[in-house]
């Protein structure tokens, strides 16, 4: 039997999953499956990342611009409620389409009395497994999703001959047919609905479908083929049957007719039949050992770059669900390290080059109308998905987001022109595979938020800041950043104090109480708006300088940046969320949007902006005192924010809260329901507690909690092209290793004096302050840092 002893990088259980949020996820960025681990009646719920309802259509509101001036007049007159009413009746649009489930693979395996059941997900190898004993025989299933070969594989084995017998079939929640071809391949052909409405819009049991477009939904194909040793394979009705084999391998692939965000998937789509055949032809001569080896080598090349050790489990040998239950009263750093690894695993499994970005549920969804359409939500969630990508050395996994940005530049340029008569490109809070850039319907508190392009541009700059890749900056990042900046230069207007402000403006999904007692979302110059634009302009100015281009445009940005409405501190000492110190309708609101400048931005720096940092701390304290952080992703954001404030105790409290209150037994984040952003944000938050680099310095162990007295981490990346490993004992750094990819001045912050060695020789350093030293780092060299 596979070893259960080393559970440090495994999730494992003594029983099959009963619910979807107990199943174990596998994926290769494009294909995904949830593995339940049942013996006699197993189900693998399937997904393919391009399978969406809908098709390209004009989602822009061509009447919106006609009402912009009147909305602005109402806002400047203090008539916020009336302005919001006009926005909601005249300036919003339609909802995005929905990410769709692909179907289900069923495995009915014959078995006698079962004992020694074991189910696991090995994060070292990205392989799920189920093991059990029956009739004195040991049975094993291993399941993995291969990126290099683009297939899902299930391998069946037994330690006794001729004991493998099972049958498989497929179904789908959409219109589908199944058949078995002459090569004994099980085939499902299906078609998505051409339109669905979110579950909060309609109570109908079936998705809303445009009657005249039923035949134009996206087409897809799923193919299953079997390889067996010993025994035989045959068909029975719509099932494939394996009888008395020594071992067997099930290979599944799936493709869709998706052919780009701007092409009709039915009339101008790809041929999923041909695509499936091409994938299966490429692996026709590969046996299970080759497929598994290629999968493991590819996956480990990413996963093994980083390793975090926070000590051995306090209660070794516990299954993951029991461990998590015990954690709620006895927190265990080893489980926190497993959660950190799980976030990295999930990003690798849901976001690979050439694929779609990870959506609200990564790639795992079992519903035709999933929560919030399982779309790409830009007012926090998609960005949080990628906070770990650079610092955890998974920059390749960041690339699908950049592909989406390239496409949003196209659709967002039309939205900027039609909705606002502005240059550049804009995108609002919800995006789908058709790159919906316009406002959706509903309330202005979420739908009217033309700030998505600024936040997305932040990710382009971050990729450059970590890598130093000037070719990426020149050819890809800067053009998109500049286009976003052009929009905001046009969007900003002057207020009575001659500040540049956004108008209309909201703070995502939050509301305030006006002096007249009205509860409203719309005003002007929300702090998040101003922080996002400050961030974008700052990064564009720096990019222009480093590339040596666009000096007149740079000067225009510098002038505008100097006029941006300033950050303000309110009556409680908090960072104000709106331009005025309005009473908060929900003091414990889940969003902390006004703190963007603290994290993930760099406008508020702990060691340079003491008053603003303290105001952020007060804002966080007020949120928590009123029930804030009550969703998984919100709790994850709080970890990152407290880490930036170097408040280790509060950051760790949010780590334990995330695991205790917002985590399912398969370690999926519970919004609730499941949203993957909490997993990704939690991993990013743990990394932020250990290493920070946003202030042009490497800050070592800036928020190390007392609960992690001893430990080590290898492979974290920092802005400036550094890779950092650290060891600590009794709560203090013992050694750090810093690898420099580029030559330059390296500044290091730690609360004790440090010395630096390279190749056994002492490196000259400058003591810039009590806590900061600097030295010249040469490209390609590693530096050893120790306490003096």
Structure notes:
This protein is of the alpha+beta class and 788 residues long. It has 3 domains: 248 residues, Beta-galactosidase, Chain A, domain 5, CATH 2.70.98; 252 residues, Glycosyltransferase (Alpha/alpha barrel); 77 residues, Sandwich (Immunoglobulin-like), CATH 2.60.40. Helices cover 31% and strands 24% of the residues. It has 18 helices and 35 strands. The protein has a 9-stranded antiparallel β-sheet. Strands 2-3-4-5-10-15-14 form a 7-stranded antiparallel β-sheet. Strand 2 and strand 3 form a beta hairpin. Helix 1 packs antiparallel against helix 2 and helix 11 packs across helix 13. The longest helix is centred in the middle third of the chain and has 26 residues. It is globular.
CATH topology of the largest domain: Glycosyltransferase
Return the CATH architecture of the largest domain: Alpha/alpha barrel
Taking pLDDT < 50 over at least 5 consecutive residues as the criterion, the unreliable ranges are: 1-6, 201-214
Mean pLDDT: 95
Estimate the helix proportion, in percent: 25-40%
The end-to-end distance, rounded to whole angstroms, is 49 Å
In what order do the strands lie side by side in the largest sheet? 1-6-7-8-9-16-13-12-11
Largest sheet data? 9 strands, antiparallel
Structural class category: alpha+beta
| Tally of separate helices | 18
Beta-strand portion reads 15-25%
Alpha carbon gyration radius? 27 Å
Count up the domains.
3
């Amino acid at each position: 039997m596979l070893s259960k002893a080393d559970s440090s990088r495994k999730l494992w259980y003594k029983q099959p999953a009963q619910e979807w949020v107990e199943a174990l996820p596998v994926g290769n960025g494009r294909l995904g499956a949830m593995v339940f681990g049942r013996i006699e009646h197993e189900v693998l719920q399937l997904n393919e990342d391009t399978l969406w309802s809908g098709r390209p259509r004009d989602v822009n509101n061509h009447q919106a611009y006609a009402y912009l001036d009147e909305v602005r007049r109402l806002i400047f007159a203090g008539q916020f409620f009336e302005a919001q009413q006009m926005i909601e009746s005249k300036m919003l649009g339609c909802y995005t389409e929905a990410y769709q489930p692909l179907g289900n693979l069923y495995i009915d395996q014959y078995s006698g009395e079962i004992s020694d059941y074991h189910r696991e997900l090995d994060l070292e190898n990205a392989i799920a497994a189920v093991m059990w004993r029956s009739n004195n025989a040991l049975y094993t299933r291993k399941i993995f999703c291969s990126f290099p070969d683009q297939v899902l594989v299930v391998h069946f084995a037994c330690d006794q001959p001729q004991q493998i017998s099972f049958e498989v079939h497929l179904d789908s929640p959409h219109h589908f047919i199944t058949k078995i071809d002459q090569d004994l391949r099980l085939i499902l052909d299906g078609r998505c609905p051409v339109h669905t409405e979110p579950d909060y819009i309609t109570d109908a049991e079936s998705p809303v479908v445009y009657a005249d477009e039923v035949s134009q939904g996206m087409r897809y194909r799923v193919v299953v083929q079997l390889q067996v040793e010993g025994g035989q394979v045959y068909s029975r009705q719509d099932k494939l049957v394996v009888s008395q084999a020594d071992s067997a391998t099930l290979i599944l692939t799936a493709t869709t007719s998706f052919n780009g965000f701007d092409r009709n998937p039915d009339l101008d789509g790809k041929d999923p039949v041909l695509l499936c055949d091409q994938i299966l032809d490429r692996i026709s001569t590969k046996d299970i050992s080759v497929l598994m080896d290629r999968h493991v080598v590819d996956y480990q090349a990413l996963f093994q770059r980083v390793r975090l050790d926070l000590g051995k489990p306090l209660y070794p040998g516990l299954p993951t669900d029991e461990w998590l239950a015990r954690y709620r009263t006895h927190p265990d750093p080893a489980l926190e390290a497993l959660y950190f690894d799980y976030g990295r695993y999930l990003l690798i499994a849901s976001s690979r080059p050439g694929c779609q970005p990870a959506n609200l549920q990564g790639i795992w969804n079992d519903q035709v109308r999933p929560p919030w359409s399982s779309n790409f939500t830009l007012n926090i969630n998609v960005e949080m998905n990628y906070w770990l990508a650079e610092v955890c050395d998974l920059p390749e996994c960041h690339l699908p987001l950049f592909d989406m940005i390239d496409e949003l530049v196209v659709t967002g340029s039309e939205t900027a022109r039609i909705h606002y008569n502005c240059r550049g490109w804009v995108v609002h809070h919800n995006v789908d595979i058709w790159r919906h850039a316009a406002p959706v319907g509903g309330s202005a508190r979420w739908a009217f938020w033309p700030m998505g392009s600024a936040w997305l541009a932040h990710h382009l700059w971050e990729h450059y800041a970590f890598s130093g890749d000037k070719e990426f900056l020149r050819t890809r990042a800067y053009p998109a950043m500049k286009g976003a900046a052009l929009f905001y230069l046009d969007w900003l207007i002057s207020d009575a104090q001659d500040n540049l402000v956004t108008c209309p403006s909201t703070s995502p999904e939050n509301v305030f109480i006006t002096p007249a007692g009205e509860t409203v979302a719309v005003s002007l110059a929300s702090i998040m708006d101003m922080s996002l634009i400050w961030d974008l302009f700052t990064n564009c100015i720096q990019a222009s300088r480093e590339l040596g281009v666009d000096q007149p445009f740079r000067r225009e940005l510098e002038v505008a940046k100097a006029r941006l409405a300033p950050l303000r501190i309110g009556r409680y000492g908090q960072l104000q969320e709106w331009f005025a110190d309005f009473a908060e309708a929900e003091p414990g609101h889940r969003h902390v949007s006004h703190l963007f400048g603290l994290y993930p931005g760099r406008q508020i720096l702990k060691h340079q902006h003491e008053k603003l940092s303290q105001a952020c701390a007060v804002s966080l304290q007020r949120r928590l005192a009123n029930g804030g952080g009550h969703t998984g992703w919100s709790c994850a954001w709080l970890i990152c924010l407290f880490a930036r404030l170097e408040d280790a105790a509060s950051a760790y409290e949010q780590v334990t809260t995330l695991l205790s209150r917002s985590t399912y037994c398969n370690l999926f984040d519970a919004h609730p329901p499941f949203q993957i952003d909490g997993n990704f944000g939690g991993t990013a938050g743990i990394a932020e507690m250990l290493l920070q680099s946003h202030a042009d310095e490497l800050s070592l162990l800036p928020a190390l909690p007392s609960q992690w007295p001893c430990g080590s981490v290898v492979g974290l990346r920092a802005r400036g092209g550094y890779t950092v490993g650290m060891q600590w004992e009794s709560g203090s750094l013992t050694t750090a290793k810093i690898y420099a990819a580029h030559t330059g001045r390296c500044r290091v912050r730690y609360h004790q004096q440090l010395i630096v060695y390279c190749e056994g020789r002492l490196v000259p350093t400058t003591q810039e302050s009590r806590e900061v030293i600097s030295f010249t780092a040469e490209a390609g060299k590693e530096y050893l840092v120790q306490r003096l």
